[in-house]
User: Fold this.
Amino acid sequence: MMRVLVLHSDVPRDAPADELDTLITAQAIAEALEERGHRAHLAPFVFDPEAIRGLISEHRADAVFNMVEAIFRQGELASVVPTLLEKLNVPFTGCRAAPMALAGDKPLAKRLLRLRGLPTPDWDQPPFAALADDRRYIVKSATEDASLGLDDGAVVMGREAARARADGCRETYGGRWFAEAYIEGREFNVSVLEENGAPRVLPIPEMCFHNWREGRPKVVGYAAKWEEESSESLNTVRHFISEEDEPALCRQLTELSEAAWRLFGLRGFARVDFRVDEAGNATILELNPNSCLEPGAGLAAAAAVAGMSYADLIEHILRAA
Ligand SMILES: Nc1ncnc2c1ncn2[C@@H]1O[C@H](COP(=O)(O)OP(=O)(O)O)[C@@H](O)[C@H]1O
Ligand SMILES: [Mg+2]
Assistant:
């Protein structure tokens, strides 16, 4: 039996769906831990080391389940939480600070992947000197991880359109925006768990786009991710691929996920997002060291196919910590 402090983002009750998700997940994790005979206490994160130290000692926590995805509603700040927990000498779930921050800066993460020889689509940052006029690009936030600003308009043709889109997004949302070569083809979200200090790739789902209008970009955008009743959400459906049917593809995705995990020094759990082009070459879109742990979301669904219940998954992540 362990005493576990489930630390979550301090989310206002009227926050948008992508933020409320953290609260629902923290609650589900606490229930799963209790189901396993652990003692779980939920607490919102406060940006005050002494207060966190106080929470840990008050609850005599053996470990912290880190579900802090944002501070002051900013995901970019979440990496200070592992920094703080490390200093307080308490075991905590998931990724350390530096890999979290690094993966959270997509262009920088892509540079690292390239340096290691791992595939990721071509990209450029403003003023986009390297972009071509006759190529399709997707304009994305460098640091947001919730598909903010991703809708059909994010996929553009050529440098001028990319520049206009990036300028518009910067005005609307703030932050840094970059353009990445748009990869037509299949999408896969590979969930990885830490097992005996090594990455273990779970069964792999393809994200399938149903009833998609001809020519509409296949993008898992904000609506598909967060607006449950939207047609985008209802029509982006997970299908697990089988190793028997597609051995080469499974091997490729598995090896690349393991290599990326090792390169970034990930821990606990993560998800790696891929596109596979029409020639069958997989390319890494991004790494999510803080991937969603909500029951029914990608990681939990992949764990279920591997025969792990939600409580098994949560216990596994706790034990890795
Ligand atoms: N280079 C790309 N080519 C094609 N689709 C892309 C590309 N980059 C992103 N997408 C689409 O946008 C979605 C979100 O992009 P991603 O980089 O994973 O950011 P997020 O952090 O918002 O998940 C992906 O799941 C995919 O559907
Ligand atoms: Mg993604």
About this structure: The first helix runs from residue 17 to 35. The chain has three domains: 3-94, 102-118+184-320, 123-181. The chain has a mean pLDDT of 95. Residues 211 and 235 are 7 Å apart (CA to CA).
